[in-house]
Write a structure and sequence with these properties.
alpha+beta; about 20% helix; Molybdopterin biosynthesis moea protein, domain 2; about 425 residues; single chain; six-stranded mixed β-sheet; Molybdopterin biosynthesis moeA protein, domain 3
Length: about 425
Amino acid sequence: MSTQGSLTTNGLTPIDDALTALLSGLDTVAATETVAVADALGRVAVSDQTSPVDVPGFAVSAMDGYALATADLQAGQRRFAITQRVPAGQVGIRLDAGSVARIFTGAPIPPGADAVIMQENTRLDGEVVEVLQTVVAQENVRPAGDDVRNGSLLIEAGQRLRAPDIGMLAGSGIAAIDVRKPLRVAVLTTGDELVRPGNLLQPGQIYNSNFFLLYSLLRGLGHQVQDCGIVEDTLAATEAALREAAENADCIISSGGVSAGEEDHVRTALEKVGRLALWKLAIKPGKPFAFGHVGSTPFFGLPGNPVSAFVTYALLVRPALDRLAGALPARHLPLWLPADFEIDRGGSRQQYVRVRCSNEGKSGPVMHLAGNQSSGVLSAVRGADGLAVVPIGATVRRGDRLRFIPLSEIVGQV
């Protein structure tokens, strides 16, 4: 992969600069509440949460088998009387000298035992068991605190809770947790050509896919969506829609109307009812993007083409929503994969190519184009595993390694 020198962005803002500027103007706005742990999936933790107990709280057997004292084995004993039975949920008594306890997975290790021999490695003869293999001290024993130590950090402030987190909290005896309330996100779409699904299309009309795309992305992160409807392509209607949306929302997202055409009114309306902080990005797709405020309410103006709306949401709006919701920044693995496609002419905008991965490569996955790369072809996103990042001015040849961003990371569903 080669790049040209002395690149300019022709007045467009590079994506990294745009994200830095955008986040610098945002603070956490989400209020807090206490919810049951069972209801906390996808919510953002308000503060650090430590464990009040060891997990497990006592040494337990990791296997079904027989608890014994390894000193007896070291002394040459191989046949043992079974003097007690310890299932999970019950507590055994101290082992008699030279005896074993029949024990089951998760049951407490009885006093006097220091190992468990798997039942597969024994031979049962009535109430006597013969040990066929030796074990060492602590073998097949999970010590107290093996999973979680009392006082250890379970959840970090700002962490978005996943299913394993919920399990860890419950396993530590925590029944409720303080979390951020969902953001109230007002979503409006602009365009006289748009019609909601379920209605008949008239000549020149198309169905409004962007609202449902954004609705699904936002609901996947647990945010509340306020449907502000389809805004007609007039300056007055756009101004009114922005004012109304700002009254009861934590932020506003619009799609369409942010280009420089005569029927694009979002930028002008935003400058009249609020302030514009960012406009036009050095990325492809997604150049016509706007950020600003209506009063104190953050506003994100996404392009109207669905792929452009998706990419700008993923790269800019998702991190901004995390900031507003008090969530830690999403973690992205540094993945670089070889391309099975070529790009002959590097442009003045950083490209985010929709790709699917296969295991055809001898050394691992290879990226292929996931269909038509037009910004209006949403099917290429649906068929993609992620985005391949082509730097400004880069020429890509087959086998060149590009940064790969999995869609699962940038979309952020829990």
